[in-house]
Amino acid sequence: MKFLRVGLSTTTIEPVLTGGRLDGIGVYTTALMKGLPEVGCSVTGWSFPPPFKTVRAGMFSAGEKMPRSFEAWSLRDLVLPTGRGRLPMDLFHATDYRIVRMQCPVVATLHDAIPLKHPEWTSPRLRGLKNWLQKTAAGKADHVIAISKFAVAELVEYFHIDERNITVVHAGVGSEWYVPPPPEDVDETLRANGLQSGYFLFVGTLQPRKNVERIIDAYKSLPAAVRRARQLVIVGHAGWRCDDLINKIRTMVQNGEQVIWLSNLAQKNQLRHVYKGAGVFVFPSLHEGFGIPVVEAFASGVPVVTSNTTSLPEVSQGAALEVDPLAVDDIAAAMLALATDDALRQRCIDAGRRRAAQLTWNQAVEKTAAVYRKVLGR
């Protein structure tokens, strides 16, 4: 089998650009970077440098430096619509919304249309320009990958992409998530962070659509005995429009509530330890293109509360307790049920593990490589 020369956008995983923090797109990009060489692809990472800043030689470690910033390249595409960027590859895969014209075919993964559908949830800084750039960039892809069937309708509506030019490839989790970490390592991570096994857990960036404030309100409404026995652990760095949420968390801590916010875990494998120590995973997000943390919890053997909206029922397939994310009482009732009903807990754990086995990065990588070959006619 002849190897395909694939250029992969690595801007979302470049440490000097991200500070070492990976969001969902970063996790997705990392999985492709790791897995594609196993399915006949020779992969080179390419990262867009920040505009108006000098990038010194050796600063980029995840990928090579693009010839110009995304903003400058987008302006070039606007002024020279017939121009094409030249890089030594058979195909370029943009894993985020930074899509530019290339001499080779371009595949783009568009995870959702949240910035256009719900601008109120996004950072207000240069929002209009960013949304215009995203919408314009989407039209430059030769083929689009969506990470859920749910996302397809949004991509068609907001990015005006022909549905026939979209392939659904579900995201997943790596093989390491299916192997329980050593108990002594889990215990060490929990002790280091002041955690007591059995807590309610949320994982994700602190931003409006993640619905963390309602998780806190649901936790506050639980019986006092349950709150004394089970902490609420929030894992994720501060995103945008989260000042009120952070103040709410700090106020609860000052009032003696068992709420712990871990804004940054010291080591990558500690996240698996934190999942393993959880009693219930709570993820009633208002909107997800996929929702990787749900599958991480499934694979870790943790019962899940999630939303009955957007892509999350497609991901869960009945393995989680699905609730109205706007109803605090419903979120609280599901949290209480999974904390107190052992038979229900076990059913959800077993169903979650079965569902996680269907959503692996190995499968996603193989299907992604098949998209490349289809686009290239190989």
Q: How many beta-strand runs? A: 13
Average residue-wise pLDDT: 91
At the third CATH level, what is the topology name of the largest domain? Rossmann fold
Question: What is the H/E order?
Answer: EHHEEHEEHHEHEHEHHEHEHEHEHEHHH
User: Which CATH class of the largest domain applies here?
Assistant: Alpha Beta
The total count of helices amounts to 16
Quaternary structure of the protein: single chain
Shape: globular
The CATH architecture of the largest domain can be given as 3-Layer(aba) Sandwich
Record the strand order, biggest sheet. Answer: 3-2-1-4-5-6-7
Q: Please state the CA-atom Rg, rounded to the nearest Å.
A: 21 Å
State the secondary-structure class. alpha/beta
Can you give the helix content as a percent range? 40-55%
Uncertain ranges: none
What is the rounded distance between the termini?
Answer: 10 Å
Domain Glycosyltransferase subfamily 4-like N-terminal: 23-173
Domain Glycosyl transferase family: 198-355
Organism: Noviherbaspirillum album
Pfam family, one: Glycos_transf_1
